[in-house]
Automatic annotation (TrEMBL):
This is Thiamine-phosphate pyrophosphorylase. PANTHER family: THIAMINE-PHOSPHATE PYROPHOSPHORYLASE, THIAMINE-PHOSPHATE SYNTHASE. It holds the Pfam family TMP-TENI. It comes from the Bacteria. InterPro entries: Aldolase_TIM, ThiamineP_synth_sf, ThiamineP_synth_TenI. Pathway: Cofactor biosynthesis; thiamine diphosphate biosynthesis. Residues 9-176 form the Thiamine phosphate synthase/TenI domain. Keywords: Thiamine biosynthesis. The keyword Cell wall biogenesis/degradation does not apply.
Amino acid sequence: MAEVERPQLYLVTPPEIDLEIFPDRLAAVLDSTEVACLRLALAGKDEDRIARTGDALREVAHARDVALVIENHVLMVERLGLDGVHLTDGARLVRKLRKDLGPDAILGAFCGRTRHEGINAAEAGADYVAFGPVGATALGDGSLAEAELFGWWSEMIEVPVVAEGALTPEKVAELAPLTDFFAVGEEIWREEDAAAALRRLLAPLG
């Protein structure tokens, strides 16, 4: 049996960022482990704050050859010199944005727990599809993206899949053979030492 490739790591920023502190915290995590992509996922719509944060994080990420995508704010991609966009509303805008942003931009879509939405996003030109939450959380309606969904996707669809939302070491162990990426955010940023928290979370990967 062929060896299953180890899933890659996809980091997600916290919704609130202190620019005095966070770039150094981010740099420490990026220097401690290999990260494929970083998502800027700020809460709110303060254009100036998003732009300043994007500039600061782009410097940290690009200095380490890590791609930086932004959540939903499509017009910021070109303006801030980012690598693409992560859409949180499934497949709806994927086809249009693929045309607008061109073939080289990273275009990802979060599709909740919906196989059908994921297929639509993949067919419309998404570079990856994310499903979640995979772990128990008080947010949302309590339903989860189950291992079965990731197993089916890995077998049937070539577009990479991302597992995200309330990850635990147990979930990492369960989903490692079935997913291409783990998206990790609040799980580590709420800890004092984010790099150490990440090591604990990903320990099952060996």
